Request: fold
Amino acid sequence: MATQSVLEAPIAPMDAAPGAADAAACNFRDPAFTANRDAPVHRWAPWIAGFSKQFVEDALDRHAPTHGVVLDPFAGVGTTLLEADLAGHEAVGFEINPYAAFACRTKLAAHRVDSPRLREAISAFAAFGETADSSGCEPQSAPPAGFRTRTPFYSPNVLRKMLLALDFIHTLDCPQTADLFKLAFASTMVQCSNYSYEPSLGRKATAGRPDVDDFPVFEAVAAKLSDMAGDAEWSRHARSRPERPDGRVFAQSFFEGYRSVPAQSVDLLVTSPPYLNNYHYNRNTRPQLYWLGFCESPRDLKRLESLNFGTYWQNARERDAVEVASPVADPEILEAVSEVRRKNPEKGVYGGNGWANYAAQYFNDCGRFIEGAKWCLRPGGTALVVIGNSILQGVDIPTDRFLAVIAERSGLNAVEIHSPRDARVGSSIVNARVPGSGRLYESVVELRA
Ligand SMILES: C[S@@+](CC[C@H](N)C(=O)[O-])C[C@H]1O[C@@H](n2cnc3c(N)ncnc32)[C@H](O)[C@@H]1O
Reply:
């Protein structure tokens, strides 16, 4: 691996992702989560912006040959943590979304699941579903009062079955079995609804699909649970060094919590922070957050949003001018933010100033992330950061290069920018289709302490 800084290389033209020339020889497989859909345990909880287990396997093979500490500061549903744990490393993560953190914890405990007990509970659940359905009995549970949607989230038939399923879950006295049921319930709950991920949560009708009048809820949850029981057995054999404690995830912001990781203790950091695309992880998991009781009111969601890496355009657009903080204030970054700020002043809060504020906050948070990474990484330790570029108000923003610049300004070595996947689509990317603007790509920024 070359140790020359990538920043000494010429700036890549925007029609070619940095490193695209040697994409074929790239060291990492495609990081997109779709590859996890059938992978044991990973498939328990789909995550719209998760990455693939194959990418993490490549990262561990290349950068963590001996057992060590692996950190994911923005853990999502725990792809890094689970793979690191299976491979025998000590896995540590942070995640602000309580549903995602719950999915991580439940997956990391897969090897301790009592599969025969789980299978018994699944049979009882299926029998309960059949009896309750045919007897016409009314559910005891109620839908979460704070969860409001423009049109009913569930049709009456489906709602009744969802509530009956919850009634059953509330009778489970084994906490681990109950967690598995809750995760199976939560990870199938959107498919039974009148909403879908497009990739943001929206009405099926808006996407041209019919509402869901009825759905085999008990069958869908039971099928998920059966997969879980099989995967749990698999994970007991797949987990190398079974005597180790489970991987850990802190349901906390990395910015607030990183000092609880012993200084210079991490061998490898593998992560993907939120991109500069204003994707609302918290809003998009409102069904799971409310129905599992992690949120009760919009105030709870607001608090999560305020913790999010880069905040959101909606929170930044009305401010006068968010400054790029001095550790991040590289001339190239300042110029990109200023260019966005000058765009479309006639559009008021929807014009360039609001987006420039959002970008400035994002790069300030890149600086906070790098500070945390510096604290955690041991000398010689590596960070691999999967990040997508952005196009704001028609201005191309090479977030990968900017992250590398910020890291170098803070004393980390930016070793290489890899290009595992040189095209990306994203309907939530703002103005991505402005004529003449560049294209979307994803990179892996490799940093060394
Ligand atoms: C791109 S996703 C990571 C997906 C993950 N690689 C996986 O495979 O599941 C980014 C995650 O960062 C989380 N996040 C945002 N701000 C955070 C913060 N300040 N601290 C910890 N996690 C944060 C989001 O909730 C989101 O789940």
